What we know:
The complex is a heterodimer of chains A (about 120) and B (about 120). Helices cover about 0% and strands about 50% of the residues of chain A. Chain A has no helices and eleven strands. Chain A has strands at about 5, 10-15, 20-25, 30-35, 45-50, 55, 65-70, 75-80, 90-95, 105, 110-115. In chain A, the strands form two sheets. In chain A, strands 2, 4, 5, 6, 9, 10 and 11 form a seven-stranded mixed sheet that branches. A four-stranded antiparallel sheet of chain A has the order 1-3-8-7, with no helix packed on it. Chain B has about 120 residues and is mainly β. Chain B has strands at about 10-15, 20-25, 30-40, 45-50, 55-60, 60-65, 70-75, 85-95, 105, 110-115. In chain B, the strands form two sheets. In chain B, strands 1, 3, 4, 8, 9 and 10 form a six-stranded mixed sheet that branches. In chain B, strands 2-7-6-5 form a four-stranded antiparallel sheet, with no helix packed on it. In chain B, a hairpin with a 4-residue loop joins β6 (about 60-65) and β7 (about 70-75). Residues about 1-5 of chain B have low confidence and may be disordered. The interface between A and B is medium-sized, with 27 and 28 residues.
Amino acid sequence: NAGVMQNPRHLVRRRGQEARLRCSPMKGHSHVYWYRQLPEEGLKFMVYLQKENIIDESGMPKERFSAEFPKEGPSILRIQQVVRGDSAAYFCASSPGLDATGELFFGEGSRLTVL
Amino acid sequence: GESVGLHLPTLSVQEGDNSIINCAYSNSASDYFIWYKQESGKGPQFIIDIRSNMDKRQGQRVTVLLNKTVKHLSLQIAATQPGDSAVYFCAGPNAGGTSYGKLTFGQGTILTVHP
C-alpha cells in the first residue's frame, strides 16, 4: 500500500517562473492537506481540500498560490511568479476522513529552491 | 512559544539513555496533541497522540505526558537509539479548525543520539 506520493522531490525555479507540486494521497484517502516548512521551523498549514472542493485555505498567501484536488488525478499546489521567499519544503498529507485523529499521513515533501 | 530565531532547541544523549522532549502550548481549549518525528529530508512521521482527558499515554518505548494545568506536554523515549536521531515536533489541531488535519506545529527539538 503506497503512502502519500509527492513529486517532484526537488524543484529549482528562477524568480518569476511557475512551480507545480503534485500530491497523490494514500489509497482510500479523500482529504488532502498542504503544509509549508521553512528551514529550521515547524510545518505551517496552508490549505485543506477534498475532491473538487477547497475546504479551508486560511493558510494560503492571498496572491500567487492556488491549490486544487480534481475528481481525477493528484492534488496540485501551484505557485505563480515565484520569489526567493517561496523557497521551502512543501508537504502534503492525507487522511481518510474528517476526524483524522492520528491518521494524518505525510509525504516525503517537495523541496522548492528559487534562484 | 513562538519560534523567533533560526536555532532549534537541541538535545544530545548517549545511546541507551532516556530522552525527554518538552513542548508548551498556549490554547487551554486544545483537546488533542500529537508528536511527530521528522528525519532529515523526510516528511513527519506520527509517533503517538494523546487526548486532553488523559494525562499519560504509552507506546512502544515512548510515553507522552500531558499537564493541562501548566499547558505542557512531554515525549519520553526510553533506551534511546541512534535511529531516534531526528527533529521532534508536537502538534495540535488549530483552535476552531475545520478538521483534525489542520494542525499547528511547535518549533521542534533536534535529538542527537551518540553511539
